[in-house]
Amino acid sequence: MARAKLTDRQLQSMKPPETGRLVIYDEAVPGLEFRMTPTGAKSWRMKYRVKGAALRQVSLGPYPAIKLSDARDRARDIYTAAKKGVDLIEQEKQAAEDDERSAKRPATVAKLLSRYVEEYCKTNQRRWETVERMFSAHVEPAIGAKALDDVRRADIVELLDDLQNKKGLNAQVNRIRSQLIAAFNWAVEREFLDVNPAATVKRRKNIEAPRERVLEDKELAAIWKAAASLTYPSSQLLRLLILTGQRRDEVRCLPWSEIGDDLWTLPAERNKGKRQHEIPLTAAALEVLGGATRLGPMVFTCDAEGKKPYAGMKRLKEILDRESGVTGWTIHDIRRTVATGLGRLGVAQEVIEHILNHSRPTLHKTYNVHAYRDEKRIALAAWGEHVGRLVAGDAAKVVILEGHRRGRGG
Q1: What keywords are assigned to this protein (predicted)?
Q2: Which of 30, 156, 339, 410 could disulfide-link 378, Cβ–Cβ 3.0 to 4.6 Å?
Q3: Which CATH number fits domain 109-189: 3.40.50.300, 3.40.50.10950, 3.60.60.10, 1.10.150.130?
Q4: What is the pTM of this model?
């Protein structure tokens, strides 16, 4: 490698090498190199070593875009920093990455929650709309405008206190707390925050009394009749909920691809239990499905192409309340009513649990792999017949399945 105290005149008049690469070490600044290729391309490179580290090299840019004086100034800065144990290039690279990350970082709590819903909830949660509404109604009005760096544990506690004591919310307070913890954890993973301000906020106790509402026979009959008087998809959706006892969104988002001749196979990814679940389709259930209009892949839809699931549950509930005269109930209460009704019919608890797709103890899951398909079919058929009798006004006649009551499965 040639050495020289470089000058601008020398660099401007220098001729390209015929082969290889011409490299001249500048004697004015340690580590600075001038490089020239056979094509005439000229550039600067700096070699330096931070104490205790390996030799490093970095390009300083082309000549004459980077003048000799500028190259020397830059090289001196790198050399001086290295002598002090600082890798200036790495330091600048880290600063640039920090600036880029900061530019992408949500500035406020509201912007964080919006990104969390958009980038995580929509692809990972079946009920992401509920989370979005929860944030919009209860969190953003209180702390949405607060800068992300300024959020403290006390802000979260004050928010939950107000929701509980001023707005009178109960179980929803803990749901909001859980969603905030999840959102802030998501932010920490992406380095938007260093710590989760909600991580140590304690769960509120004694505010989540479990619902015990079970529809009486006359109430269930009234709701069925109100639903039967409606049009597709509202009518069929509500009646299939009653006949199968499955969760609201499992029925609401049902695609035709899950429906066989007389069996509904619910895949693991579409149910709370995260396991494949079989629901036998009784004559009553098949009759309901037969009344559904096939517009596309979804069974219950208002979309012209049938691609979007029905989304009018709130309005449907209001109509059912008005038309049936039954109030003080929720859609989920239907599931509890089905379970209770099956018990009254003498269906063994184990069969009921399989119909509802409830989780089972590890020992049972490991050693008892029986699918209970026949037992579920018999039980749901009896339930469908019972509902038919209620609707027909023959509520007093309850047929007990003694085999199920004794746990023999019929």
Answers
A1: DNA integration, DNA recombination, DNA-binding
A2: 410
A3: 1.10.150.130
A4: 0.56
